[in-house]
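Box 3.1. Reading complex inputs
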Amino acid sequence: MTPQETDSQTNSDVSPPPSTSSIDPTKIHHIADHKHERPLTTCRVDPSGKFAFAGAEDLNVYRWDLESGEKTVLAGHQSWVRSMDFSPDGQWLYTAGWEGQIRSWEVAAESPVTLNVIQAHRGCARWVQSSPCGQMLTTCGNDKRIRVWDAASGKQIVELSGHRRHPYAVLFHPTDGHLVSEDLMGIIRVWDPQQLIETNLIDASVMTGYDNKFAADMGGARDMCFSSDGSTLACAGITAVVNSFAGEQDPIVVLVDWQSKAVTHYLKQTERKAGIMWGVRCHPAGFVVGAVALQGGGGQLLFWQPAASHATNAPVNESDQTAGDQQAQTAPELAGEPIELKPYHTFALPNCARGMDFTSDARRVVIAHANGNLGVYEMAEKTDDGAAEPTAS
Amino acid sequence: MYCRVTIRIVLGVMFCFCVDPLYTQELLPLHAKIDQSVADAVSEFERRAGPLTTDSAFLRRIYLDLTGTIPTVTEARAFLDNNNEDKRAAIIDRLLMSPRFSRHMQHEFDVMLMQRRPAKYVTLSLWQTFLFEAFRNNLGWDEMTRQILSADGANPENRPPARFLLDRDLNPQDTTRDIGRVFLGRDLQCAQCHDHPHFEDYLQRHYFGISAFFSRSYIFKDPNSKEASLGEKADGVVKFTSVFTSQESEISPRLLDLPEIIDPPLEEEPYITKPDDQTRGIPKYSRRQQLAETIVKQENSAFQLNITNRIWAMLMGRGLVEPVDMFHQDNPPTHPKLLELLSNDLRQHQFDMRYLIRELVLSHTYQRSSRLMSDVEPPAEELVAGQIRPLTPEQLGFSMLEAVGHIENIRLATTTKLLEEQPQRDTTSVAFAFEVEQTINGEVQPHIDAFVNTFASNNESRQFDATANQALFLMNSPLLDVWLQPSKNNLVARLQSIHDIAALSDELYMSIFSRHPNEFEASAVQHFLNSFADKRVQGLQELTRTLLCSAEFRLNH
Amino acid sequence: MKRNLGCNILDHMVSRRHFLMGATATAGFGPLLPPRLMAEMKRDQKQILQVYLQGGVSQFESWDPKPGTEFGGPFRAIPTSVPGMHISELLPYTAEKMHLLSIIRSVNLKTDDHGLGRLFMEKGRRTGDFPYVGAIASKYLSAEKNPLPGYIHISTRGLTDHTAAFLEAQHGQMKLEGFQVPANLLRDGQRDEATYNRVNDFRLQLNRQFKLDRAKSLIDSYDASFEQAAQLMERQHLFEKQNDYDLIRYGSHPFGRNCILARTLLEEGATCVKVTHHGYDTHAENFNFHLEQLEEFDQTFATLLGDLEDRGMLDHTLVMVYSEFGRTPKINHKYGRDHWGSSFSLALGGCGIQPGATIGSTNEKGTEVANREVDGGHLFHTYLRAVGINSSDNHAIEGKTIPIGDPAATPIEELLA
């Protein structure tokens, strides 16, 4: 695999990042495509905002310089990479491969090579995330274990077992030291890694379905994230399985109120279209973005405002009438059944989304597409010179 | 011998008419044209064709095919004792007007249209009543189709026919495939991904052309009533990509090779009611309505050929095109001219299915015996002998309940009750008969469900898949034990009171097989009963059960 | 070849009852023998175990992995108990048993249709009304006094196939819907053995009379269903609780339980037992579904294969693991693989098969057969030859002769032991 010339349409003369107040998802538009010849599987933008990394349906990880479009190959895995994360200082990249390995790389090295390999799981390593302090990594894999590793030495610190089916994703909570993982059956387990115990079990079985015809289960978290203050957990995946062997089920994001551990919201499409939600991010401005691969081949970006009344059928809680840049709040003690929310904006993507991340200024969305494109989209008014101008707020 | 002579006379008459084809065309009734066409297709037809069935075999067959059940013992005796020459035509006309005909057609068309899907949005009984009433009022197949494909399910009147689309959840694959299969006789499933690899005339554009008719429709759930109905949007296109060529095409609604139906220019306000979360979208121009209007049109010959072939298959045990959803150039009809003739005639009769059914069952082709003339079984497509075929689960259930006298007990009780309520009612009126039969249908439904659960197969194939599970049901199910308990005027109770073995055998055979037993059979009955010595009731029960388990009962012959 | 022509159903019933009486006298001959003793019995009846992976298992994720290539997918290849032979890492338990099996990697059926592919794999012909492998085994391999139906299919779903074609109806498959006791298997107390026999004889007498001058196939098929029901009623113990030792080793999921039942049925003399494992038609999420389905398959199948070996049954039992086709090299946008009959694999082992062989190959990317291309016709000859049926011989049916295997195809000689 050799580095490919980029076919970037990026305007290299990008203006400095404007403030988040000018961010308007309803104005989202396409900025650039960085191309790869194999389908991409996931993507992340490093904390400095300089690089985007993507996994692909081959054995490499790819790095694009978002400004110049230069592409670099990170070779070493023996299988596909479908999850990655950075150390909080932005120096290291950790990648999880389906051969069971976690590899670490120097983010900004000219030609990054594997610095350390952890044989983390028997079977696929499905997920890797750095702890907020950067000293630990957590991973999960097909041996049904959740593990915590010393990031520097690669030594195992903690092993947690309890998931009966494959866990698909695991996260550190940003502040309280807990871990949260979700498996194929939509079972979300909250762990206290120091006490080695499971503290909560959250039922998100709405995110799984048994296909009677084919006698198999499908579900689980395809992406997970916390809001930046850790008050809300967002899990992306599927619901309402009709025929999962043909990809016929609905995409969904499930929101969990972290304090009460209650499922508060089901974030869905305006109009049902079969597919999978492969990405979710909580924006600092309070809205939630979901990235969909549609069964028919296209994609969608969906924008919800869980706390506000943008949604047509969401009841407005008196306690959280503020929207916009306020953090999304929910009042789970008021909510019996989870609230089903429709997006206030839907953006059609030219191809299936398989992963999504924000740029460091949270102004742009980077998407790993199934056609091999790494798409860059900006959530602001389109201007003639390609750069964004602040919009009236 | 009587039958043989008749054939010769008819064929002789036909031969005379053949001198002037035009004259023949005008004068012969449809059923005679059927026989002529069948005879023309086989060399040495007269030598090879079997005789017409005996009266008793005809009686059982016509009851099963027109009413979905065997005759009651009283009806059977009356028919066999009747010496009128035109008694076959007379009973055909009587049965076609009976409530049992509507019920049987309801079952047949329910299976054809819904393939035993569970109810999802539309209550099953509403749908069943819709079908029953459609046949009671002899609704044309074009009108029935129009109602089924245009109903949005939003009001009580059109809710039942909307089941076809609603209970498929408007799933694009199922809906497109089943419209192709059920209404056009073409299973376009494989054409979804690529032009059919084996049938040159099943093209992707056929599949997506049908799919484009309802691609703008969606399931709308009323936020207040929670009831699902069909909404539609005013724009949107259907695209398809071949997995082989990766070429993407856009397509407008189109029925097979008829011209595309181009949307009128989008009006500034294209909606009668605009769709949103609270409101069902109703566009001024509906593509779905175009499907209902176009599919029944004269130029869509696939629609006419399909229903003609399906009715033929229902009565003759085998389609002129077989399988019935495989119309394509490599699978031509066994009798192309006959199918053409029948389907044109059906269209000219406003898709009057009762008319077509009447003509088919009046034909000698239908009435031929299933007994073989020689050791070599003639090819089924030659139509020189009657086809043996298994009873449908519903036919088997109703026939068994009729044979054991369970239904007759309900019939008597219902009649008595209705007369007690209104002594002056005319028990011979059509309305009265319908009321009694509908009460029976309601009461026996749980039993019929048990038969459906055991005997229905998942596919629509007419192949006989006799399974061990079915045999276990027939041999051991406690359900049958209940019916065999002597009660009121049921069969075992009647047999209990008869001590003359000839009379007992006759009652048994007339009740179950609708025919008299021969001497050998009567003595076998006696022999069997004797082996039970003093346990006479048990003997009678086992005797009855054994006859119900026999091939003669299980098959329509 | 042992032919079982002219087997009159009434004679069959008499001998079956005779057998039953004998069995009663010896306090239950079959079921009470411990498995080890069963294994030591001198048996000359050849048998077949078919494990059918319904929907089309991916050759890349099973028998023909291509890790690191364009279409290879995320899974690696692992070594097996046969030096040099690698299979997918999704089959670790089976990998340890590969010295008992052989792989054919060069099947090209030239169809991507479920129905056509299944019929070709079962009948050895692309079209036409021919009997399935299991029906042929039932006819030519079953002992005259076989205590069980010759061809039993355990499947949790109702796929109805017409399997006997022109062979006698009793050779058609009897379907068991899983390991549960079939409904109505148990008779109420009133009817004793003598009554049952009288009833049965009377029914057969009625049917014989009825079919004198009528087309016989439907009536024979109907009689056969009662015959099969009777055989099941006599062997109710087959459906008794499965022991914990087996459940732990096979898995307590339906496929595990169905495989325990399959082993029991083979031990008790069923000629051909087919177990269907559903859920391989992975147009979406091919990799997650293969992880799930093959994890269930792998340990269970390897355990079953090990049990057949331990009990000495592999010498006379042909084992087939097959699908109606494989899956596309191209991975679609749903992480799925679609239908692909042009270059896929299957595994055979046991009776009459060279163990540890790899027949044929695909090209580097797995997009086409590279050498030793075979189709359903060749495979069909191979299955039958492996169990000692001369597949070039003819069926003799009512005076007509019909070639057993397609005369245009030949067996894979180098695979035969």
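In summary: Confidence is low (pLDDT under 50) at residues 1-18, 308-335, 386-393 of chain A.
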